[in-house]
Give the backbone structure.
Amino acid sequence: MPEMKSKQIIIFMCLLGSISSGWSITVDFDITPKTLRVNEAATATFTIQGVRSPPPPNWPRIPGVTIYAPRKIHKSININGRAEEYTSYQYKIVPTKPGHFNIGPFSYSAGDKTIGVSAQSIKVVPAGGSANLSRGQPANPTQQISASLTTKRTTVYHQETFDIDLLVYTPTELQLNNQINILNLPNSGLSIPQKQLRDLGTKRDTINQKIYNVRRIRLQAKALTQGTFKLNPTVRVGLLLRDQSRRRRGFFDSFFSRTQVKPLDIRITTPLEINVLPLPQQDRPPHFSGAVGSFSFTADIKPDELQTGDPVTITMTIHGNGNIDAVSTPKINLGADFKSYDPKLLSSEINNTQTAGRKVFEQVVIPKSAAISDIPAIHFSYFNPSKKKYHTITKGPFPLTIRATGENGAKVVQGNSETIQRTARIIGTDIIYLKASPKRWHRGAPWLYAERKGFWFLQSLPALALIGIYIMVRRRDVLHADTAKARRHKAPKSARAGIQKAQEAIRTGNLSLFYESLDQILTEYFGHRLNLAPGEVSCQRVCRMLRGKGLDQVHLERLKSMFEQCDNYRFSRSTSSDQDGTEGLQAQLDDLNALLKTCEKIK
Amino acid sequence: MMNDMETYGLKARRKTTSPAAKRKRMRSVALWIIMLQPVSIPTALSTPKEWTPAQADQIFYKAGALYDEGELDQAIETYNELVDHDYISAALFFNLGNCHFKKGALGEAILHYRRASYLDPRDAEITANLNFAIENAGGLQPAKTIWNLLARQCGLRGWIRIATGSYWLIAIAMGVYLWFTRKRKIVLRIAGAAGTVWILSMIAVSAWSSTLKRPEIVILKGPTQALYAPIEGSTAHFEIPEGSILRLDERSESWLKVRSGKQSGWIPNTVCDTVYPWR
């Protein structure tokens, strides 16, 4: 029974200990800003955790510093599913005289616990006549804002990366926006990319008893060539100016800022000189390939037991700070015992500033014989600029266990990373074997058909057709150009149509149609033949023109009588009685036909 | 024709049926029959029993089987039967070349490979075997001119077809050009392109024609000496190894004047054979 009791007590104490460890109190004390003017207020914050409803701290009296009543702030934050409570007491403290003040240390008591709180010091400068733009009395801001460059290393080595800090000093009465541009940086020699600016924040500092807001910007520089470089850039900032007009403020004015941004160029107070030295030649290792910084190197092979002709993969990892982007794979001196392939970059993880990262390389090699026992050591060399000396990291040699295959000699097989183009090894030459079957049989020489007459006759057809087309086109063009000629060619066709119509009239005994046809024949034929408009065709004109062309009088008389007969019938409906019958009409038609043929013959 | 004559005879003699007329009719019919015989009889006599292409194929396969069995002489004899029956193909000459090559007759092999290349110049296997045989023989080769290289891109039959086709295309294009007035530029371009093809094809045809007129010959027995004159015992000009391919310049009885580049000489016609004609 006593043993049981002691065990219970031990367990209870352990539980109590574990619970009470969660009841530990932490007190945080901070003052901002730590540099201020006389009568300028600062905020002192006590943050207490681990106590529910902690009491405010007891302040000792500090001569020269007025401490006002605190403001209590209670917060509850959920961290990883667990609620944590904070209580803050914020005090407004106002120094009344210049000097250095140490506020603290304190002893803070909560319940039965007492915790020591370390002191904070503040620097108080006298209140100066500084410009206050809000009172409508503008001053020259250029004179009050300045910038400077600092660096820990003014002498660097070729390919070394280093930091340059830009400090922008702004009086507390003035405000700058977040934008900052650095102009007139050097184009060569030093690489200072603006995309890699890092804002390290703003703090207060005093210069000649004047308080400034100091904004620190870190630039990443890399020395590309050796020499001396003077950095004297121009810093462009945005100065925030409040609206100075006295116009009435509208209802919404309180919601929108009334500030303007004025770009301001600041010159560097003192140019920064950087000396870039070449990498030392002394003690330079033979494996050095340009890595500058601080690196680590590891290497591994897989597999280490294989058969002749099987590939081995060597994996090399380099990581560290420096010009990691320029680091290349270490060369491995394999000799003639290995068949090697070009190394590959497997992965590359480099930070935004290109000053730190990790690279992994892979190379495939194939041992050519079973006599090989290891892969030679791999060396990676780099130059450490801070120590000013070269370092070489050696990994290996890597033991290999190679089993010979059954065949004589090494067997080179395909690597596991790329397809290998190989050509077959010629062992012997001979003629190509027989053709299995003929594509087609020719009866004699296959070109003899071109010697046959039928072939050449066929070839003459296109030429003949072309000549025919040419003649027809010429004729067409001539007829298009010469209307009289075209009409002359048309005359016989028009006469034939009329004659057929007259024949029909004779067959049907239609006298009217007959003389109508006759009239049509005469009008159309001589109209086309002599190039006359229909209204111009008259007996007198036609006879005159034909007489001029050489038609004899007999034919002219006959033609005249034809015209007269047509006119007689047309106007008086009378004809000579011996020509009314079929035979008479046919005779007239034949006569006309013969007359037309005679007219055709004359030119 | 005879039916027409009979019809004519009946028509003409519908009105008369006398015996004399009948006899006259029979004589005219007989006369026609006799006139036709000179055409029909020789035709019937001159046509031996022809092989069909299927039979030719069977002979071809049979020769291949003999080659596989190692009966090279019989295989050559069988292939030559096809040549005698006027069944020609590039495959036939190729296989003949293989048979001669295996027998060690490089000259004969080159001769037949060359014949095969005339029929199918673009066949890579024919070219490979020909070059291989020439390399083995170490003989002279014909000069390679740009015209010959152009001509060898296709057989003579192919170039004739190309020339004919482009000629017809030119004629059609010119006809369209003459007849129509629109889009003449396009037609002219077509005619120009066809004209270019025609010119090139005619150059190739003329190169082939030149080869056929002054045929290539292959030395079958070598080395042989080309003499300055077609006389036995005359001064030797240059030596020609077996398998050399030369051009024939002249014939004089049993002598041939051959040329290799700028050198020419006389050789007996027993030591060589022409690539074409092949019989």
User: Anything to note?
Assistant: The interface with chain B takes residues 429, 431-447, 450, 459, 462-463, 465-466, 469-470, 473 of chain A (CB under 8 Å).
